[in-house]
Amino acid sequence: MLHLELIDAHNFYEILKLKRPANEEYVADNSVSLAEAWLYRDDHTVEPRAIYHDDTLVGFVMTHADYARRILDIWRILIPDAFVNKGYGTQTLRLVIDEAKSSGRFDALELCYVPGNAMAEHVYAKTGFVATGAVEDGEIVMGYRLRP
Fold first, then answer.
1. In 3D, which of 101, 59, 61 has the Cα closest to residue 81?
2. CA atoms within a 13 Å half-sphere pointing along the CA-CB vector of 21
3. Confidence at residue 27, expressed as pLDDT on a 0 to 100 scale
4. Total domains, the chain
5. pLDDT over threshold 70, residue 25
6. Which domain holds residue 68?
7. Quick check: is 15 in a domain?
8. What is the domain-level CATH number for residue 86?
9. 108-113 and 130-136 as β-strands: parallel, antiparallel, unpaired?
10. Tens digit of pLDDT for each residue in 30-57?
11. Which of 73, 88, 74 is nearest to 18 (CA)?
């Protein structure tokens, strides 16, 4: 069963060892993501987590909560080569959507992708995200409404 766990001393180094797929040039290394999470630690808005299928580490996801706008941003998601095309990205997005919905703190989710990243665009659209028409730092913004 797929589940998310906080990153702590027991999985920190495993997370650092996860590498993006060889042909994936769009996602930052987890060391960068964890450093960015550390930068925003006092805001209590960034949450990096490990993605597990049962006891097997299959990826990494990091969210950023914008409580003023009631939007949860899926800032990073990384599934390494050994686990690509097994549904883990889609399942992870669904887990994050379900958590955001049940929390009652958000009205929508957002994420971005670099134009040309067809795999990300496909997974995001398949999960129900739609392009908002916005572009941030050259990346296409997609949204998922939790409430009308």
1. 59
2. 16
3. 72
4. 1
5. no
6. 2-106
7. yes
8. 3.40.630.30
9. unpaired
10. 888 999 999 999 999 999 999 999 999 9
11. 88
